[in-house]
Amino acid sequence: MVSRLTTTLSFFTYLFILFSFSSSSTTILPSNSDKVSLALYYESLCPYSANFIVNYLDKLFEDDELLSIVDLYLSPWGNAKIRGNDTFVCQHGPYECLLNTVEACAIHAWPKLEDHFPFVYCVERLVYERKYPEWESCFEELGLDPKTISECYTGGYGDELELEYAAETNALQPPHKYVPWVVVDGQPLYEDYEDFITYICKAYKGTATPEACSKPSGYSIQRSKAKSIPPVCYRDTIISTLLEKIKSEISLWMQ
């Protein structure tokens, strides 16, 4: 029953995001110089990355005013490691490398946030629901032509994009320790990443302050009572592919 309810809520949230992108808005947008940069460094099969995208990052798209002050950047590399000859391995195995590359191709093919985020969200929703082998269904669901993405990840260009994300991620200062790794205006949020909206509001220097920034974050209140640290996929954890896969499946099942 809980699993069915969670899936139903995720589906309606997904529909709401699509509606937010497609509906017209009368909000006066701030200039690019006023926007707060929000960067997410993640890997596709880390259950905590999927949870953040599906259940936290989506909050941006529930508020047009809030979304208008944010410059969101996605980097699908995470804890992968480069081997010789420009090849790489991923923390959760070859399927994660595939989906990282697919999402990199989507971001490249559809550079506008309103074009690539629904696809990334769709794939990560399937990861969250433990249905990620069905990721190609996102093309039909969103009415997208798969040809461009297919040519990108099968033709080698997707690997080039991933190596660019690798260089960028490995150059982070301070270095990332785990994923999801959330950075607001150049400052990592560490374990407080789920409260990213509070940090966006604090960093915003423009005049068109969203209404959401004038009230306390519900998540901050919840965290202060629970005093818990949100789970992450650590960068330097040495674990076999099989054990990591089992760990991820158990984590997804328990949500």
TrEMBL record:
SUPFAM superfamilies, alphabetized:
Thioredoxin-like
**Where primarily located?**
secreted
**Protein keywords:** Glycoprotein, Secreted, Signal
* Keyword Secreted found: yes
Checking InterPro entries in the record gives: Interferon-induced_GILT (IPR004911), Thioredoxin-like_sf (IPR036249)
Tell me where in or outside the cell this protein is found.
Secreted
**Which range is the signal sequence, renumbered to this chain?**
1-24
Hey, which family's this protein in? Belongs to the GILT family.
Q: What is this protein called?
A: Gamma-interferon-inducible lysosomal thiol reductase
Q: Which organism is it from?
A: Salix suchowensis
